[in-house]
Design brief:
Shape: globular
GO biological process, one term: CTP biosynthetic process
Keywords: ATP-binding, Kinase, Nucleotide-binding, Signal, Transferase
CATH class: Alpha Beta
Helix content: 40-55%
Distance between the termini: 13 Å
CATH topology: Alpha-Beta Plaits
CATH superfamily: Nucleoside diphosphate kinase-like domain
Radius of gyration: 14 Å
Number of strands: 4
Structural class: alpha+beta
CATH architecture: 2-Layer Sandwich
Strand content: 15-25%
Protein name: Nucleoside diphosphate kinase-like domain-containing protein
Catalytic activity: a 2'-deoxyribonucleoside 5'-diphosphate + ATP = a 2'-deoxyribonucleoside 5'-triphosphate + ADP; a ribonucleoside 5'-diphosphate + ATP = a ribonucleoside 5'-triphosphate + ADP
Strand order of the largest sheet: 2-3-1-4
Bound molecules: adenosine-5'-triphosphate
GO molecular function: ATP binding; nucleoside diphosphate kinase activity
Length: 140
């Protein structure tokens, strides 16, 4: 079984989408092996998103991701990375509403930055992100 990191971003928490997202996660057969509510500090957000630091949206992304509490969850399932990314849908919620109207971002995302949820894009990224957020490589 594989692990991935799921995050309900500040817009998702503010919009009270956390319970519905957790219901989708559990209804899809994932085990939630770790869960934590936290607010990212500036340093942790910058480390999480360092691959985007040259992009024009970086500052907006960091401001947004540190703007309020998030809920981080370690999910376990066969092919967890791909399975979770299919459930969340494309980065841009408007594209998600056209291409995958039942996806989480189609339902609760409002913009390309404020897109409600995060999913790791590989198993290596998942391990790295889980270590950064939970400060523990083999958490669970
Ligand atoms: P995530 O990694 O959060 O699951 P993703 O893999 O779909 O999302 P990435 O390309 O890794 O997207 O970008 C990380 C995050 O940066 C996005 O989820 C979004 O919040 C923000 N972002 C990405 N591209 C843009 C953009 N063009 N304009 C504004 N914000 C963006």
């Amino acid at each position: 079984r594989e692990r991935t990191l799921a995050v309900v971003k500040p817009d998702g928490v503010r919009g009270n989408h956390t319970d519905a997202i957790k219901a989708t996660i559990e209804g899809s057969g994932f085990d939630i092996v770790k869960e934590m509510s936290l607010q990212l500090d500036l340093m942790t957000a910058q480390i999480l998103y360092f691959e985007h630091y040259r992009k024009p949206f970086f500052q907006e992304l960091i401001n947004f991701m540190t703007s309020g509490p998030i809920v981080a969850m370690v999910l376990e399932h066969d092919n967890a990375v791909e399975k979770w990314r299919k459930l969340i849908g494309p980065t841009d919620p408007n594209k998600a509403r056209i291409e995958q109207p039942n996806s989480i971002r189609a339902i609760c995302g409002s913009s390309t930055t404020q897109n409600c949820v995060h999913g790791s894009d590989s198993s290596a990224a998942a391990n790295r992100e889980i270590m950064i957020i939970f400060k523990d490589v083999q958490s669970g």
